[in-house]
Amino acid sequence: MARGLYFGTKSSAKYSKGYWISKSAALTSALLVAEVILVALIIYFVPYTKIDWDAYMSQVDGFLGGERDYSNLKGDTGPLVYPAGFLYVYSAIKFLTGGQVLPAQILFGILYIVNLGIVFLIYQSIDVLPWWAFVLLCLSKRVHSIFMLRLFNDCVAMTMLHAAMLLLLYQKWHSALIIFSAAVSVKMNVLLFAPPLLLLMLKALSVKGILSCLLSAALVQVVLGLPFLLLYPKAYISRAFNLGRVFIHFWSVNFKFVPEEIFISKELASALLVIHLTLLLIFAHYKWCKYEGGLFNLLCSRLCDAIKKLVHIQQFLYCESIIHVLRKEHIVAVMFVGNFIGIICARSLHYQFYSWYFFSLPFLLWKTPFPTIIRLLLFAGVEFCWNIYPSTSFSSLILLFLHLSILWGLWISPIEQPIAEKESCSSG
User: Which GO terms describe its cellular component (predicted)?
Assistant: First the structure.
């Protein structure tokens, strides 16, 4: 329910919810129209600065020219470091635009509107924000730049991720996992959503359903990477799925206050990984799985259930895939908070990485128990830090403080009921 709009009686709650829906629907429609106009004005009036576009086109040219060795696919910014889905997407963009920037900007403007529309649908489905706060989703100067003035593959990956999340809200698990895997094939940052997604699958699906979804996701990766896996598997896997990349200290928006020799060290990377996993486990055990008796109780119960089903193979084969229908707000909370924890623990955040979590910020802020004025100040502070170029030690320190403040608010926030409805297995 939208905080602050409901007044006790069932009839007044229904009235208030109807009021919220009508107001939010009218506002989002108006915002989409306004954004179409704004996108056109940005493309027409704001100068485009090439950063990765030429490199993308060089890499695509190599692929279209028949090169299948990932170690030979390079651009002026270095070797190709994205999975195969990136090449297919940008090959299609090159075909549609002829490799020209202006038509590509128009395409990415359309992509921005599509992504925003999907995000609006997610927020309208969960009814967490007050209707007027939908405006916040349109107020980022940096995000407009990432989409229309930079043409980064982050935009494609996050649009696909949001589409997958929308499918999750309607329990379309297989379709969601297929799109999620396709998003990973465009850019690996989507894997930050993988741990919370796996937890949701454990809560919602039978063992058969989980295995089927994971198989579907894996199959997407194999099919997309097949031309490279058949000929140069080592080069493809090591380049496209390199989790140990070291980013340049100068371009980092976070941890800029850390000396460069420490910033690039393996010790810092290992420490942040440990913190990341620890925070995920703490939130999973004490917040996301509270109603199940904690993470370990959930894992034990599912393991016992899996053993019983496997012993009776017929029961396993004919059991329904969905055993619990999860509440939409719970799905979004686990996905967005899980990703946000990964953002906080990322060693380096480049400017385009803001798109990884900007659209979740209003939800995260309204999940905290903070007063509205504090939420708005935190939102403005995060946006301010992302628009300082180049980032400074002070701005990165402030950004870390703001992130940790939001995380603290999420920790002390009330725990939402995870289950909307329970369905029994068809075979008993």
Answer: endoplasmic reticulum membrane
The helix (H) or strand (E) run that includes residue 326 is: strand 324-326
SS3 339: helix
What's this model's pTM, rounded to 2 decimal places? Answer: 0.93
Contact in structure between 136 and 27 (CB atoms under 8 Å): no
Within 8 A by CB and 6+ apart from 18, the residues are none
pLDDT for 77:
81
pLDDT tops 60 at residue 169: yes
pLDDT at 280: 98
Q: 149-153, 302-306, 396-400, 422-426 — which is least confidently predicted?
A: 422-426
Query: Cα(120)–Cα(359) distance, rounded to whole angstroms?
Result: 10
Tokens of 144: 């407009």
Q: What are the beta bridge partners of residue 2?
A: none
3-state secondary structure at position 128: coil
Tally Cβ neighbours within 10 Å of residue 102.
11
| Three-state secondary structure call for residue 109 | helix
Per the rule left: phi > 0, alpha: psi between -120 and 50, beta: everything else, 117 is alpha
Could you tell me the CA-to-CA distances from 84 to 48, 236, 271, 350 in Å, in that order?
A: 27, 9, 30, 22
What mean pLDDT is reported for the chain? 91
Strands 419-422 and 74-75, how do they pair?
Answer: unpaired
Phi-psi region of 178 (alpha: psi -120 to 50; beta: other; left: phi over 0): alpha
- CA dist 23 → 56, 146, 279, 371 (Å): 42, 29, 37, 22
Q: Please tell me the distance from the alpha carbon of residue 417 to that of residue 367, in angstroms, as a whole number.
A: 13
pLDDT tops 70 at residue 10: no
* HSE, side-chain direction, 13 A CA sphere, residue 216: 16
pLDDT tens for 227-260 read 999 999 999 999 999 877 778 888 899 999 999 9
Tokens of 111: 């992509």
The continuous run of DSSP H or E covering 84 comes out as: helix 84-97
Whether the Cβ atoms of residue 396 and residue 252 lie closer than 8 Å to each other? yes
Query: What's the longest Cα–Cα distance across the chain?
Result: 67
- For residues 377 and 422, is the Cβ–Cβ distance under 8 A? no
- The two structure tokens encoding residue 1: 């329910």
Instruction: Quote the pLDDT of residue 193.
Output: 98
Question: Which residues does residue 75 pair with via DSSP β-bridges, in sequence order?
Answer: 78
